[in-house]
Amino acid sequence: MNQKLERFAIDLGNNGVHRASLFWLRVFVQHAQQGVLRSDEWVEIGLREGSTIPGLNVNDLAPRLALLANYELFQAVRLKDQATFSGEALASLDWNYKYNLFLLPDIDQDSLVKWLGTLWQEIGPVSPQGRALEKLLIERDWLWGTGVPDRSLLLEILLEAQAIYGGWLPRPVVTRIAHALNIPLADVYGVTEFYTMLYTRPVGKKIIRICEDAPCAMRGSEKVLAALCRHLQIKPGETTADGEYTLEPIRCLGLCDHAPAALVNDTRHFELTPERISALLLNEPRHSQQSNKIGGLVKVALANANVVDPTSLDEYQAQGGLAALRKVFLQGMTPEQVVEIIKASKLVGRGGAAFPTGLKWRLTAVNPSTPRYVICNADESEVGAFKDRVLMDTDPFRVVEGLIIACYAVGAEQGFIYVRREYYSGYQRFRHAVAELEKTGWLGENIRGSGVTCRIAVRRGAGAYVCGEETALMESIEGRRGFPRLRPPYPTSHGLWGRPTVINNVETLAKVPPIIIHGGTWYNSLGTKESAGTKLFAVSGSVKRPGVYEVPFGVALRHLIYDMAGGLFEGRELQGILTGGAAGTFLKPEHLDTPLTFEDFAQVGGTIGAGTMIVFDDSIDLRDVLTRIGQFFAHESCGKCYPCQIGTQRQVEILDRIQNGNGRPDDVETLLELAQVMTDTSICGLGQSAGWATTDAIKRWPELLSVAGSRQQGSR
Amino acid sequence: MSDTVTLTIDDQIVVVPEGTTILDAAATVGINIPSICYHPSLRPPAICRLCTVEVGQGALQPACVTLAVDQTVVKTNTERVQTAHKVILELLGSTVDLSDAPEIQTYIKSYGANPDRFAGGVSRQFEVLVDNPFYIRDYSQCVMCWRCIQACADDVQYTYALTWGKRGIHSHVATFFDEDMPDTTCVFCGNCVGLCPTGALKGLVEWRMAHPDG
Lengths: 716, 214
Prior knowledge:
Structural class of chain B: alpha+beta
Oligomer: heterodimer
Shape of chain A: globular
Number of helices of chain B: 6
Order of helices and strands of chain B: EEHEEEHHEHEEHEH
Radius of gyration of chain A: 30 Å
Distance between the termini of chain B: 61 Å
Strand order of the largest sheet of chain A: 9-15-14-18-16-17
Largest interface: A-B, 42 and 45 residues
Structural class of chain A: alpha/beta
């Protein structure tokens, strides 16, 4: 075969030339007469034929020009003046004129036809990735939901496309997705810019994400990061020259019980040390991906955790799973009766806001607007929070069962589970659980002959803490940037696509099945009068046994920290406990005997929130903790409202300079005023709470951030 | 009458039709509540939070989207409100070049705001974009009021050339992969330029007069 064509074939094999070039050559050869074809006919035929080939972008000029200019196959003669062009000049032809295109005499058209036919069979005009992308766009995944607007699939499709294209989204891929989903190009780009785990530039084959929030930093994540930087000879955020590794410091991964922790692609790595970075580099952790320290005094939500195979519906049922669903569907409970039981249980939301669950369901159920939706908020991303992770890893069926019951109670036929992208195993667990329930007739149309229809879609976030905020989460499900909405109106009347929507935390839904079985009175008798039932607490930081513990409300804080979580290490004394996470408040040693209830915590200024407890012994520099919390909020601010967009950044700048011993005399006053304004004026909970930990620390330790105090600490 | 509401704003009794925002209600009695992002032709995004006022004993509410409710008491000049407005202006002044935003400068003066308090940190630094024959984009002067993005999309032109890049303090107005304006869906209608409250968007001719070599 001709050398020029051999070079073309080699380039095709190496992806050195776009496969669309092959298409354009084929069009030419098929339609040329004695080796000649007019340029306008060539383009016209190509555009027509190419538009029927999925994944082929015929409007892209580059492959056509590359074919003309790079392989010395053609000569062009301008019709107007018979001017002749060949070689590289063909790349800059003025296409306002018409040309006769000739195959050069050394190319024999007949043998070219044969050769091309074989190549077309072997390679085709579309790359394997292009084919996979088209398959994705046509077939989609039923687990993403049925009957939802196309735009809603954007995040899932971007994530899947990213996996197809080696971890990032080349521009033509983004363009193709925008066209396929009928979304403006700029909108899709805006989405890729918002979520930290979507990339529009090449990344390494392995992305190493190291947590830099307080619970991991306290246990040395910075040293691990430094060791990796030294070894790979790159800075944080960079990719190695060979394209093997991208190193990314990241905000809380929800693996605080295994601090310091990292993700390599989707694999979890626990208890890192600078000496053992080879496990990270090889991505071969020497521990189970699911080791969870759990415990407590009662087992309501955690009944199956570490006992039942989370992938086995049979085992779940053997432990009494689905009994609540049977009771609801097969014993003919009305939706109103279900809501009444939940109301009687006095269950309140476990995501942090503690809104009465029964009331939320009632408000949604009575709203005449339809369709209604229920969302399971599995976007747990707050610093130090990991109890939902443990629940979805160990007992996904229970959460889904609770979600189906919630859908029935409010008359929703479509439920959603929104899982943060960092929790890949939780996502897989949910997908599996939903598929199993679908297979066995517990999800879908006319569930077990009850006449009830319920479907559940499992969706992923893509790296944005703010999407745990309920309205931002809805924006995200709708395929947009995670900007929180203005409230009112509230989701119970204007939620997903403006319809009445219940959004419940993972733990809240996990409590639903046992409440249905045992009754509301049983549940609220477990706690105190004002704090009903049980609560999961995620304890991390300076304790021997960080983990998730379930206790009835009313147990003393000391019991949780010292008996369950094992207390502090030898020779250490307690400095403080950050209760309620980054958006929480501090308690000191004198508060250890406070009962874990909403009412008692409110009295001493603690926060139950989602049940996050980060413990600090006397070796910890709390100013470093506060700076990291400040960084967390600045990093996660969506940028919508001014006080949060700018305020979170200024807060961390001030904290940073105080920590470095450069504090100014009025810094404490400025921090307090700034925090107050952020609380007063921010749109959503993120901005409103971004200054709480700092404000509270100033209250608890007045010297901590003062200029004198910081000099003293700095000289230690 | 049931289709009007009566409320008190800064000790003045105000009667307005039901469905009137506090911002508009206040204007009827000559009380001008400051705002940046609000524009009567666009859906209020309520993001600058400069129009926040005290409603009853509760949290501060943005006057541009909060409706006047019968028998409520609204205060636009309490210490809490004043502090909020002052700090927001200081934050903005420490981040954005406001030299071409006389209205915001007037606010800064009247509240006695001191942006230097927050100076020295991350600020908006962008090259001036001169990529089309009609207007320039100087995003170091951009206050992120979203007016241009909204006007380009569903609020006016349905052109969708603009979006947001990044997020948080680093968020900015962007085009698809930051391509030049002529390569986008922009139709050069000029609505965004007309709506820009600062010098971020400006007619090329006007800009050339000040930057003959730019």
